[in-house]
Fold this protein.
Amino acid sequence: MTTFTWRSLLALGLAATLGASTAVAQQAGYNVDRDGIGLKGYDPVAYFTEGAPVKGKPAFAATHDGVTYRFASAEHRQQFQAEPAKYLPQYGGYCAMGVAMGKKLAIDPAAYRIVEGKLYLNVNKSVQRDWLKD
């Protein structure tokens, strides 16, 4: 076989594997993009340490329960790997208000709140205001 054919087969195999892991993560109730990335690529640890959403870097990624999370630094990745439950978003990363209404809605990484040490996200800040009232 030619090099091109081998590369094509390798690429197809990789795509099938990524697609399968994304499907597994979604079936398990996690909000992931088509590449299996959770939190839209934002660093889950940064919400707690920086007090703000920070975009993660592909170089600092870790997978938990079939979901790939990205981190702003190797230190944040280590913190997550040591205690993932401490940093994982609630409701699989879906909008907290949506889950309360029986729906799985996307999130805005900036519409977040940490309540009693747990990270909750909402579809937008307007919905978040309503969620905070309850």
User: Anything to note?
Assistant: The beta strands are 57-64, 67-71, 108-115, 118-122. The radius of gyration is 17 Å. The chain is about 45% helix and 20% strand.
